Recover the amino acids of this structure.
């Protein structure tokens, strides 16, 4: 079947004649999730949703306190080597700790990253491929440092932060990795971190 015949069959199936105007595609469906725009309520909603999906939230009022919390979490999880992104906030918090970076990413005990933002409606963290994916995907423990001013209401608002200049990949990570087998038995940490610890600064 040649091209014209193929297009003719499609046109006939749609009930159109040559030259008929083509209707504009429908707008994407974006569900409305009632979330307050108040910054304090945003953070509270995010915290409740984040912990509701299995994440653990730690509040820090200063960089020094965030560093102390991170150091404690590393000791609690018996972390010997890490993968670290080069995001500015992550570097400020981790640099004085003199952490050992894993020579082989597969051997890292924990990954330390930032995030583009947190989504209050779902408790999700939006992660960008622009800083590398391995620290947030390969280790069993994912440690995140994020400023509370980066909490937004919903995913639509999160995407607006890029102003149309999206990275090659975005991940909306909602709690620890979950995998279900054919019998729907849920297991965490099979295809990603089994523990997600967020230090929220401010």
């Amino acid at each position: 079947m040649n091209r014209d015949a193929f297009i003719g069959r499609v046109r006939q199936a749609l009930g159109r004649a040559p030259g008929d105007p083509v209707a504009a595609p429908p707008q994407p469906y974006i569900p409305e999730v009632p979330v307050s725009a108040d910054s304090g309520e945003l953070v509270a909603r995010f915290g409740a949703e984040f912990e509701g999906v299995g994440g653990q939230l730690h509040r820090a009022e200063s960089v020094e306190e965030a560093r102390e919390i991170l150091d404690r979490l590393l000791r609690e999880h018996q972390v010997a080597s890490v993968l670290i992104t080069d995001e500015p906030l992550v570097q400020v918090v981790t640099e004085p700790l003199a952490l050992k970076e894993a020579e082989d990413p597969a051997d890292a005990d924990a990954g330390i990253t930032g995030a583009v933002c947190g989504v209050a409606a779902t408790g999700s963290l939006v992660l960008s491929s622009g800083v590398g994916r391995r620290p947030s995907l390969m280790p069993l423990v994912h440690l995140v440092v994020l400023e509370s001013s980066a909490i937004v209401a919903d995913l639509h608002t999160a995407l607006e932060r890029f102003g149309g200049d999206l990275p090659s990949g975005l991940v909306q990570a909602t709690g620890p990795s979950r995998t279900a087998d054919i019998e729907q038995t849920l297991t965490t940490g099979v295809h990603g971190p089994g523990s997600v610890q967020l230090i929220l600064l401010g």
Observations:
- The chain has one domain: 35-178+187-201.
- The mean pLDDT is 86.
